[in-house]
Amino acid sequence: xxxxxxxxxxxxxxxxESPVVYKGKKAASDTAFVASKxxxxxxxxxxxVGTTFLVLVVPLIIEMDREAQFNxxxxxxxxxxxxxx
Length: 85
Prior knowledge:
- By secondary structure, this protein is mainly alpha-helical.
- The chain has helices spanning 2-16, 19-81.
- The protein contains two helices and no strands.
- The longest helix has 63 residues, at 19-81.
- The model has no long low-confidence stretch (mean pLDDT 83).
- Keywords: Membrane, Mitochondrion, Mitochondrion outer membrane, Protein transport, Receptor, Translocation, Transmembrane, Transmembrane helix, Transport.
- Belongs to the Tom22 family.
């Protein structure tokens, strides 16, 4: 049984030291590094887009809504008072 354990030990050590295993681990490490960098840069871009939206677009939407309400109020007043001919 000890000879079987020796064979398994040598086989597992030769597989773990294999160039294919090394290249696989290196590729996985590189992939994880690139994924983390991409995630960080994507998060930064999302923050920039979200902040720009809040600063520029939300006030525009609010102002357009106010103008629409004002126009609607003018139309109601004109219909009640009668528009000048």
